[in-house]
Design goal:
The complex is a heterodimer of chains A (about 230) and B (about 775).
Chain A (H helix, E strand, L loop, with lengths): L3 E12 L2 E12 L3 E5 L6 H8 L7 E6 L2 E2 L5 H11 E4 L11 H11 L4 H14 L15 H13 L5 E5 L7 H18 L2 E5 L3 H4 L4 E6 L2 E3 L9
Parallel strand pairs in A: 3-8, 3-9, 6-7, 7-8
Antiparallel strand pairs in A: 1-2, 1-4, 4-5, 9-10
Chain B lengths: L1 H12 L2 H26 L1 H11 L22 E10 L2 E10 L18 E4 L1 H8 L13 E5 L11 E6 L15 E4 L13 H26 L3 H13 L4 H35 L17 H24 L1 E4 L2 E4 L10 H21 L3 H37 L3 H12 L1 H35 L7 E5 L41 H12 L4 E9 L4 H9 L7 E5 H4 L10 E7 L2 E9 L3 H5 L3 E8 L3 H14 L5 E2 L1 H44 L1 H9 L4 H37 L11 H20 L2 H6 L2 H4 L3
Parallel strand pairs in B: 2-5, 3-4
Antiparallel strand pairs in B: 1-2, 1-6, 3-5, 7-8, 9-14, 9-15, 10-11, 10-14, 11-12, 12-13
The chains are: A alpha/beta (about 230), B alpha+beta (about 775).
């Protein structure tokens, strides 16, 4: 059995009087691709946000690489997200004024890396994610699928340990969605990156090594890490 | 209609936190604009109130608008002089009522009798905190009354009415000592000698303030236009017509405007006492003099909401609200370089116009030609702005090493016209302010050199002359064309004006008293120019003026600004003129000593105490003669320019702050519009401080760059205008006040921008992203 890289235990989280998670448990191993499935309002995005240190659970624990991150201060969690995690959302994450290459290089620039070095690190991702020739295009000049691949490149450019993807194909047609998932999975496997993807589409979940279903704030059908192997 | 209005109101106020923030920000922006407009609206009434309150200072034998019926009053002997204390003007009236019905000036229930003095509250306070030898001793008698508010233009006014008995104050007809007999006090407001050029300066200055405020109203109303457009598109999808959507937009803008106007009025009335303390014309005002007329209140109270609604509808007209979202009717146009040509033409035209104006005698025509050239230059600057902004943004984008600078550059490059709009008012205001300040400073520097050769630490007085019958030529003929029509110029032998003089005993007493003053290091005595035809002719031939020559020993002449010489040299001295003539009279010390003493100067250590005590002693030793220092003379000559400089610096700072408010609103709008990408960046681990830096850089970079460029341009044009003039004035950089206004204004503007940053933290809070 592989040791979990990321684990949530007994996570409870409410928004006002509305409970979103009621004691959810989940574990993800290094290099594993986990799909979190569930209907709308089931709490799957909240679970992803708790695992990524975006939200802190009301109860329960979140562990990453041997550290309990739900007890970290906001500053430390911010740094963790910047250095060790990458994010892909459904849409709207690209800065509209920046050309694609600068959008991809943005995390490195914000990390303080010199501009030339940041841009140089961003260039290979355009070839890898079949975006060659689109480096100077602005987000508004890209198709939905292209924009989503640029967002993926941005999530992967700083070589994170975990990529969190929240409905990454939610706004794409099936062909574009498949291409995005193909490339995300290939890149993650090539880098050994762990991926946690939230989706309600079985086609997307099929790319994962393992899937869990969230319903009414609880994780169902959870197979132990390493179990399917 | 009512239902639509109610729906619009509900949509505006009930749209959640973001909607409320947008409404509040728009309202706050408009409140600032309203406060500024109301402040500007009361400026002219306040200045007019100063003129009305000072009407009595122009009292003379033939009043334009007598406050009393001259047929019913007793004669009043009246002498008004402007004294100074520590750099402040002190209006002093010596008077003698010849009967019980002598007219009393406003602010006095009764005229002070012999030995009585009435003083303004500010003067009373100053006298209480100052050594009597420095100030109170100037007023012989006891303070028995306080001058009322009606006579004062400013709470800081220093005014004294000194009563005299019969024979102490004599109206000597034709004598230029300002003693006159009046039967009524002047009630016509002081007329300011506002030249055509000053009027243009005021109009340009008012426009310079109005344009940024109007542009600010527009910016505040268009706050977060993209988000509003999304909502309006949703309304269209629900079946609203374009007309109904327009109504909703108008109601939204109107609601914010009404709140903003109410807040602006409240802020104005709360700030009015502070506003009254600003010395626009050199003097603070009474708060009640900052009267808001009904017309101005209505114009602002109705104009701002109308302007705001119009701006909302115009911005809606630029986009087509379709049920599927807002599509831009016109894509942002690429900035073009051709307006640079207009700017170049403007600069050349301004240089040419200034050159022509300096040689022309058609004053009105020349001011309008110069104003026209300015207009071309302005137009060029405004049209070139987007191209220059794009060029700067490209340059910064190419070399930016850090993310915040890169993001700022790319945002400006993306829509340079929008980027420039927020700062266009800064360009004009800083340009105009810098130019005025540059020209005024250079002229002031020139004035300082040309006038008042007196050493700065010397206090000097000279006795008054008669009206000065001046003969222009040594031959006694009034042959100078300029003087031919002057009634004071009469043909005949060159004659000197008659002037009072002190005898040896009185002079000795005065000199002794001066020498006893702490800080007085020497005393200079000036003698009447001898009425010797050969000497007078020699003086005229040497180019000296006959107006009021005073002979001083060459050994003492340096303190009055004269060149070293042997014998005695002539210095022109009267009122606020002390100029060496360069004429040296071959007189022995004995011959000089025999001449009556008409001027006395005290050389001091430069301390305020020494200068003011010497001034007090001189006033009592030579009553009714003006006592001046170089600073007084400079201040007298530079009064208008200093006002221009002060108003210009103040306007500059105000406009920079208004521009800062515009920028702040634009920044707040950009945060609201980019809420999602910014929130997702933060969620991805970008530090809030980095996001703050990024947003601040977007605002600060263009603000600082454009302000700096406008300073260079304004001062450059000032140098060009001066170089085109025919009096070879060298260009002098403006002083500390100007730089404080620019740097302080930019700092305040940035402070205002920074005040909007907390909404970045709130709108991008991690839990907000979840509900996007």
């Amino acid at each position: 059995m592989r040791k979990p890289l990321l684990a949530g235990r007994g996570i409870t989280r409410s928004f006002g009087a509305t409970p979103a998670l009621r004691g959810a448990d989940v574990e993800v191993a290094t290099g594993e691709i986990l799909a979190i499935m569930g209907p709308s309002g089931s709490g799957k995005s909240t679970l992803l946000h708790c695992l990524a240190g975006i939200l802190t659970p009301d109860e329960g624990e979140v562990w990453f690489d041997g550290t309990r991150i739900d007890r970290l201060r906001d500053r430390a969690r911010t740094e963790l997200r910047r250095r060790r995690f990458g994010f892909v959302f459904q849409f709207g994450q690209l800065v509209p004024e920046l050309p694609a290459i600068e959008n991809v290089a943005l995390p490195l620039l914000l990390e303080g890396r010199p501009r030339a070095a940041a841009l140089a690190a961003a260039v290979p991702w355009f070839e890898r994610l079949r975006l060659a020739g689109l480096e100077r295009r602005r987000p508004g000049q890209l198709s939905g699928g292209e924009a989503q691949r640029v967002a993926m490149a941005r999530a992967l450019v700083s070589e994170p340990d975990v990529v969190f993807a929240d409905e990454p194909t939610g706004s794409l047609d099936s062909l574009a969605g498949e291409l995005v998932m193909d490339l995300l999975v290939d890149s993650a496997r090539a880098q050994g990156t762990t991926v946690v993807v939230v989706t309600h589409e079985p086609r997307v979940a099929a790319y994962a090594d393992r899937e869990v279903v969230v319903r009414d704030g609880r994780v169902l059908d959870m197979a132990p890490v390493g179990g399917p192997e | 209609m009512i239902r639509l209005l109610r729906l619009s109101g509900r949509l505006t106020a009930g749209g959640g936190r973001e909607s409320v923030i947008r409404l509040v920000l728009t309202g706050l922006g408009l409140a600032v604009a309203v406060t500024l407009l109301l402040s500007a609206a009361v400026l002219l009434p306040a200045l007019h109130a100063h003129d009305v309150a000072r009407a009595w200072t122009e009292t003379g034998p033939e009043p334009r608008q007598p406050a009393q019926d001259p047929a019913t009053t007793d004669p009043l002997v009246w002498q008004l002089t402007t004294d100074r204390f520590d750099g402040r003007d002190l209006i002093r009236v010596d008077l003698h009522a010849t009967g019980p019905d002598a007219p009393a000036p406003p602010g006095l229930d009764a005229l002070p009798g012999p030995g009585e003095v009435a003083v303004s509250p500010a003067l009373r306070a100053l006298m209480a905190e100052t050594e009597p030898a420095l100030l109170a001793d100037r007023f012989p008698g006891e303070v028995t009354a306080t001058v009322g508010r009606e006579a004062l233009a400013s709470p800081d006014d220093l005014v004294a009415f000194v009563g005299h008995g019969p024979g102490e104050l004599v109206d000597r007809e034709g004598f230029a000592d300002g003693i006159v007999t009046v039967r009524a006090i002047e009630a016509a407001p002081v007329t300011r000698g506002v030249s055509e050029a000053m009027r243009i300066v005021l109009v340009v200055g008012a426009l310079g303030l109005l344009v940024p405020v109007v542009s600010f109203v527009g910016t505040a109303t268009r706050l977060a236009a993209a988000r509003r457009e999304q909502r309006l598109a949703a309304l269209r999808l629900a079946g609203a017509t374009t007309g109904q959507v327009g109504w909703v937009a108008a109601v939204e803008a109107g609601l914010a405007a009404v709140g903003g106007v109410a807040l602006g009025f409240a802020a104005f009335f709360a700030l009015r006492p502070r506003l009254a303390e600003i010395p626009f014309d050199g003097y603070a005002s009474f708060p009640s003099d900052l009267r808001l007329s009904v017309r101005a209140a209505l114009a602002v109270g109705l104009g701002v909401p109308v302007l705001s609604v119009a701006a909302a509808l115009v911005s809606l007209g630029r986009i087509r609200i379709s049920p599927l979202g807002a599509a831009r009717r016109t894509a942002p146009r690429r900035a073009r370089a051709w307006p640079l040509l207009v700017m170049a033409v403007g600069i050349v035209a301004l240089g040419g116009a200034s050159l022509w104006a300096s040689r022309s005698t058609a004053e009105t025509a020349e001011t309008w030609v110069v104003a026209g050239a300015f207009l071309v230059l302005f137009l060029g600057m405004v049209l070139s702005g987007p191209w220059l902004t794009a060029a700067v943004a490209r340059g910064v984008g190419r070399f930016a090493r850090r993310a915040p600078a890169l993001l700022a550059a790319r945002r400006l490059e993306d829509n340079p016209a929008a980027g420039f709009r927020a700062i266009s008012s800064i360009v004009l205001a800083v340009f105009v302010g810098s130019m005025f300040s540059g020209i005024a400073t250079s002229i002031l520097a020139g004035e300082g050199g040309a006038r008042a050769e007196l050493q700065p630490d010397v206090v000097v007085t000279s006795t008054p002359t008669d009206d000065g019958v001046v003969v222009t030529g040594a031959d006694g003929n009034a042959d100078d064309a300029d003087d031919a029509g002057d009634p004071d110029v009469r043909p005949g032998r060159a004659a000197l004006p008659v002037r009072d003089g002190l005898d040896a005993a009185a002079t000795g007493r005065l000199v002794d008293r001066l020498q006893a003053v702490d800080g007085v290091t020497g005393v200079v005595v000036g003698h009447a120019f001898p009425d010797d035809p050969s000497l007078v002719d020699a003086l005229v031939r040497a180019g000296g003026e006959l107006t009021a020559p005073v002979l001083v020993p060459c050994a003492d002449a340096a303190v009055l600004g004269a060149e070293p010489c042997e014998g005695a040299t002539a210095v022109t001295m009267w009122d606020t003129v002390v100029d060496p003539t360069g004429f040296v009279a071959p007189l022995s010390a004995g011959e000089l000593a025999d001449l009556p003493v008409v001027a006395v100067g005290a050389v001091t250590d430069g301390s305020t105490a020494a200068i003011e005590e010497a001034r007090t002693v001189l006033q009592s030793g030579m009553p009714r003669a003006p006592v001046v220092t170089r600073a007084d003379i400079d201040a007298e000559h530079q009064r208008v320019l200093r006002t221009v400089q002060r108003v210009s610096n103040l306007g500059l700072a105000v406009v920079l702050v208004v521009a800062g408010c515009s920028l702040a609103v634009a920044v707040a709008g950009s945060i609201v519009e980019r809420k999602q990408p910014l929130a997702l960046l933060r969620l991805s681990g970008v530090r809030l401080a980095d996001l703050r830096r990024m947003v601040l850089a977007e605002a600060a970079a263009p603000l600082v760059v454009v302000a700096a460029a406008s300073v260079v341009m304004g001062l450059g044009v000032a140098a060009l205008v001066l170089a085109s003039g025919n009096d070879d004035r060298p260009f002098v950089l403006p002083g500390l006040g100007y730089w404080l206004a620019v740097v302080g204004g930019v700092a305040l503007a940035l402070g205002v921008v920074m005040a909007t940053l907390p909404i970045l933290s709130r709108l991008t809070a991690l839990d907000t992203a979840r509900f996007e």
